[in-house]
Amino acid sequence: MAVKIRYFAWVREKTGKTEEVLDLPAGVATVAELVTWLRSRGPEYAEAFTRADVIRAAIDQVHVKPTASLAGAREIAFFPPVTGG
Amino acid sequence: MSVRVQGEDFDIGAEVARLTAGRTDIGAVVTFTGTVRGTPGGGAIRAMTLEHYPGMTERELEAVETQARARWPLQASLIVHRVGRLVPGDNIVLVVTASAHREAAFAAAEFLMDYLKTRAPFWKKEETEDGQGRWVDARESDDRAVERWEGAGPAAAKVTSKA
Fold first, then answer.
1. For A19, nearest residue in chain B (alpha carbons)
2. Helix axes B102-119, B56-71, angle to 10 degrees
3. DSSP state, A3?
4. How many Å apart are CA A14 and CA B49, to the nearest integer?
5. Measured between beta carbons, which residues in chain B are less than 8 angstroms from residue A63?
6. What is the model's pLDDT at position B163?
7. Nearest to A64 by CA among B7, B119, B157, B5
8. Residue B57's closest chain A neighbor by CA?
9. Percent of chain A at pLDDT above 70?
10. What is the value of ipTM here, to two decimals?
11. A19-23 and B2-6 beta bridge pairing
């Protein structure tokens, strides 16, 4: 399954990427599983996702929890808690 | 009802005039303007850069506006949020709510700001006087501010009974 992954704020700075298209391996079915898999992709990902508990996620531009299913997702985003306003 | 994300500044008077032009059913207009503080965490900053998630930002702002309209009898509302590099004293965000009476306009403006701060995908990076950048941490007090609107909490109950 190929999906676009987007990164914002310090997650973007630490991974060194704004977005990328990745083929997710079988067994990566939830947001939490995707985070675990991303952390194994290299030191910059391990560093970006060190504080995995504070990183928020969105699927197709809707906030989701770590347990959310990736089925049918086209775009998955990772970012820190928001600080607008 | 409208939301805008833009780099340029906004003119509060012009925005209110546009929102209320030709309307005679509005008795109360509340505006909230958020501005860049020069010493947000105690130390002085030179600038602040706002990043956002285009597309999701507008969706979230529209969603919170829809929720506010469902809770209070609003005649009109507007959210304008700036992005890019801003310096102390600059405007960041404008919320305008208009209703027949002040209670709904005041409450809805506060509700819109509380939800915007915890849901809309914006991130602030401060630039300190020595040129270092640091991402602003989310505040727990913002989460608590939004919780008071959930369920039938005392604040929410009080406001809806007045509306």
1. B53
2. 150
3. E
4. 17
5. 119
6. 35
7. B119
8. A61
9. 100
10. 0.95
11. unpaired
The answer to whether the CB atoms of A83 and B123 lie below 8 A apart is: yes
Q: Which residues pair with B125 in a beta bridge?
A: B49, B135
Supply the pLDDT for residue B40.
Answer: 85
Tell me, yes or no, if B71 comes closer than 8 A to chain A by beta carbon. no
Phi-psi category of residue A42: left, alpha or beta, with phi > 0 → left and psi -120 to 50 → alpha: left
Q: For testing the chain B interface, which of A65, A75, A79, A82 should be mutated: the one with the most B CBs within 10 Å?
A: A82
What DSSP line would sit under B5-43, residue for residue? EESS---HHHHHHHHHTT--S--EEEEEEEE--S-TTSS
CB atoms within 10 A of CB A13: 16
C-alpha distances in angstroms, A16 versus A4, A10, A29, A61, B110?
15, 9, 25, 21, 37
Tokens of B129: 């006087």
B66 versus B39: which is more confidently predicted?
A: B66
Which residues partner with B74 through β-bridges? B99
CB-based contact A8 B51, cutoff 8 Å: yes
Predicted confidence (pLDDT) at residue A21 exceeds the cutoff of 50: yes
pTM value is 0.91
A16-30, B103-117, B132-146, range with the lowest pLDDT: B132-146
Q: What are the angstrom distances between the C-alpha of B103 and each of A64, B107, B151?
A: 33, 6, 19
B94 interface with A at CB cutoff 8 Å:
no
**CB pair distance less than 8 Å for A83 and B124:** yes
Cβ atoms of B92 and B5 within 8 Å: the answer is no
